[in-house]
Write a structure and sequence with these properties.
Layout (H helix, E strand, L loop, with lengths): L12 E3 L2 E3 L6 E5 L6 E6 L3 H20 L2 H17 L1 H12 L3 H21 L6 E4 L5 E9 L2 E5 L7 H12 L3 E5 L5 H13 L7 E3 L4 H10 L5 E5 L2 H13 L3 E5 L4 E5 L5 H13 L9 E7 L3 H13 L19 H17 L2 E4 L18 E4 L16 E7 L2 H9 L3 E2 L1 E5 L3 H10 L4 E4 L15 E2 L12 H5 E9 L13
Parallel strand pairs: 7-8, 7-10, 8-9, 10-11, 12-13, 12-18, 13-16, 15-16, 18-19
Antiparallel strand pairs: 1-2, 3-4, 5-6, 6-21, 14-15, 17-20
Bound molecules: 2-aminohexanedioic acid.
Keywords: NAD, Oxidoreductase
GO molecular function: aldehyde dehydrogenase (NAD+) activity
Family: Belongs to the aldehyde dehydrogenase family.
Amino acid sequence: MSKTLIKVEKLKNYMDGEWVDSSSGQYASVTNPATLESLVQVPLSSEGEVDQAVQIAKRAQKSWALVPAPQRAEVLHRVGLLMKERKEDLSQILTMENGKVIEEARGEVQEGIDMAFYMAGEGRRLFGQTTPSELKDKFAMSVRSPVGVVGIITPWNFPIAIATWKSFPAIVAGNAVIWKPATETPLMAYELTKIFEEAGLPKGVLNLVFGSGSTVGDAMVEHDDIRVISFTGSNDVGRNVAGKCGQKLKKVSLEMGGKNAITVMDDADLSLAVEGILWSAFGTSGQRCTACSRVIVHEDIKEKLEEQLLNEMAKLSIGNGLDESVKVGPIINKAGLEKIEKYMEIGKSEGAKLLAGGYVLNDDKHASGYYFAPTLFTDATPDMRIAQEEIFGPVVSLIPVKSFEEAIEVNNGVEYGLSSSIFTKDVNKVFAAQRDLDTGIVYVNAGTTGAEIHLPFGGTKGTGNGHRDSGVAALDVFTEWKAVYVDYSGKLQRAQIDVE
Ligand code: UN1
């Protein structure tokens, strides 16, 4: 279809404003999960290339930090304009490399555009604080200063949005960036870097190093001159990254899994809840950290909800996301597909009832891609593995409960804490829920997905380590607070002593 949009055969790294072949000479093939056709070759760079990028970034960062923040912001503004101009092409390329349906791809690119204009605005704020000093004729303030060279490691499931959540605040705050994108989705990294180049980002401020997590990612985490790592990805890798950064006293921001639930109370607008479940559970085939994978339902409406869900699920068309009528795209790769399949056996053996789906699609229309049928389990109990572990596929488990209090307890009874949602018309439950749902993001009468970029994104417990992506909170990851005292008394004044 739009294969002509991809103008390169072999990708190159981007260092010091130049596109350079990786010195490793090793490549991996990137395939479209909807068709299995090969799209491009991505270099698997070596550790030495990370060090090379860091040396470049260190030099570039010194002058970039001296550019006034409103001017740094102008680059982001131009990035936003270029992304807007190319939104449709970017969305199609995104659908080809990641598989998500085109409507979702457009939404993701739009997130990046919104982030560009939002962070461009932050360049005119980057607010600090003034604070009264304890002493006379002394001025005290806290200012944000850049950290230096920062490393960002981004996932395949939101290859452009998450890259903007991390790189834009880092750049506007005056840092230089080393970026390792996921090898499954390097084209978004290539396109965004080209846009930065065209927007006039000075050489060396952004350096792109393609490669594996175990080589490039590890070298970034281990490098003493990368002072911050911002990582989104799997739980296992994240914990490993956290451990290594901890040893090095390196700031690390982690955003990992979710086991997000939608609670449907007995007074909910059922059609609305069904729409919310479908969009959040199947919109990206469940391959997002905020995907809904549990539905906690009041027992009085359980059967009605099941019936409506099954009716609507039967209408979902599954296929190549470039086709506008398709609502559920493929799974990213074979390993992803096999992991989902494994959970089917687990769910059944645990005693959950399979109401729909549960299998890999192998018919003529789907045999040439990685497709899994949207799946609904019911009568799951909170402790089952299908109700506890992140499956990262189009699989939802219904858990019946007797009360609002029980719903909250079940929602919170998992290791993760990213997003949650409740459908109810009772205003008292709305306010109690926003207080009691133990997740970083709470929705009322909406699905668990669709976070807006000017609010903090991240979660509690096993989802992360307390930092937030996007929103103004992202600046806390990429800046150091510096306390500045200006004494204009002309005397050596000492704090913390009694002053007459
Ligand atoms: C993710 O899955 O890591 O709120 C990102 C959402 C999107 C971003 C998800 N705006 O679902």
